[in-house]
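Re: weekly structure request thread

Next one in the queue (509 aa):
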Amino acid sequence: LAGNRATRLFRFKMSSPYNGNKGRRRGPTQKPSLEGMFDESNDDAGDRWSKNPSRPLVGASEQHKRIVTMPFPTYQNGIYDFQARCPAEVKAKFDQLNSFSGKEHTAQLEQIVKKHTPEYEKFNFNVLRNALGHLPDASRSQYFDRIFPGIVSLAKDLPGKLSHRPLVFLTPGVTLELRRDEIACLLANAYLCTFPYRDLFTSTLPTVNFITLFSGQPGKDKRESAKVEKLKCLFAYFSKAMEFGPEGEEKVSFSKVALNVKPDWENSQKPMKTFNIEELEGKIEDFEGIQVDFANKLIGGGVIGRGCQQEEIRFITCPELIAARLFTEQLEDNEALVITNFWQYSDHSGYQDDFKYEGPFTGSNNVKRTLVAIDASDFSNTNDSKLEGLWLQSEDHTSRQYLKQVIDRDLNKAYTGFLCQELDQSLHIATGNWGGGSFKGDPLLKAMIQHVAASEAERELHYYPYHDISLKEMLEGSALATRSKGTVGEAYHELLNYAKEKNPYPSAF
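Done, posted below.
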């Protein structure tokens, strides 16, 4: 892998030198336009860029600082300046944003993206074409006449919106606030695939550009059809974002929190809180409190790909959440992500292959939503795995979840998100089958883990079975999962006893 990355870096050093540019000076109140921003004339201002022609692969700045590489010229500190030098492909992409016209824009976009980002050559734009082809005539005309030109306009506005500060990677204890209109400009650039390429094999950051959503084979795979529905959600978002008034100045906050001191689970004397099982038709997103995101380590999971589970659906119906992928590195075992004051823009129905866009959001956004992203242990890997020196030679790796060290890991992870001292202590937690589904977790075990963690954080838990009547009945029939008496320490020991009974490797416990 290291050798492949070195080969790519060498290739980029040889083929992608930074070009010079000389911008025209403007008055202090005049907004810089894209014309003139990328003049190719060679001058001495910014020669330092030509001394380091290699293009960043992982989304970090050229100076290896913790700053997101933007698709417009910046100096070493990450601040925008129209006289700064930039990679040739950045200049070319931005210059050609003005060339899009009418119904031929998809072919133009594909040509530009592939020309200036060779890594995308293997992708097609079939899903985007299919989505546009299946829109009603009126909606299709609205897309070509209004929505897509609006996306281009938002993308070109990004330098002006974020000219005053760099976009830094999140670190524990630091909150990043972005205005809604700033996020719209960031997502418009992601739609047009102008951000520098991120290699998933060498990066701890998720991908950003939407090309993975555009590409596929619709009609051959139900999950590809779900991609079409995701694009409809994005169309609804951009349609609304173009009309932002004063609400565009409202801020969405992103915070990474970390657990430095682990609870003493065995000896905790904190009382167990109430475990509330909600009705089958209830939804986590309708709960006024802390909403749990069943997260992937790389935040957002497959939201701009084939994924269509709880996290992906939440992110695509609330696209402001997708912005977190720009600056949130892979979550560590003691970390969680907290996002507040985001809006929902689409209604939906179904799940996974049956996911459907059901029109613009009809509910109210006059609420302050709080999302806590925590990633459960993943037991979907069918290869032999090693965990703290213990080899389990089994095709069913779900058995690993009953090991004490794994249970402790998920307890600490859930507790990290549930505690979040920045949040109002009176807020309750809305969750569900966290770590189930594709992660293959035992629903009852995960429910118990969340209940114990929430009680240690001194918050009540509201559990949403989401139309799964068998899960609801199992929880209702389990005194262990629903107990509200005793202490956290006592419940923890009962949790370990349950795990010992389920574990096929008792000697390894």
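The two ends are 35 Å apart (CA to CA). Residues 1-64, 382-395 have pLDDT under 50 and may be disordered.
Next request, please.
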